[in-house]
Amino acid sequence: MQIKQEIHCPxxxxxxxxxxxxxxxxxxxxxxxxxYLMINCFRTGKVLEAYAPGLYSHR
Length: 59
Ligand SMILES: [Zn+2]
Fold this sequence. Notes:
globular; 1 helix; binds zinc ion; about 60 residues; single chain; 5-stranded antiparallel β-sheet; 5 strands
């Protein structure tokens, strides 16, 4: 079972989408505006994959 949720991108603030997969306990956040990507296990909070283009180039 999968649930889709509209959220605001933590990277750029645009509309992004978060998907929850309850079979694997993995949530997947994707922002089409800035290519932000976050895949994590929402049960343990462990981040499996994260990609935020703006965050790294701003440093
Ligand atoms: Zn974004």
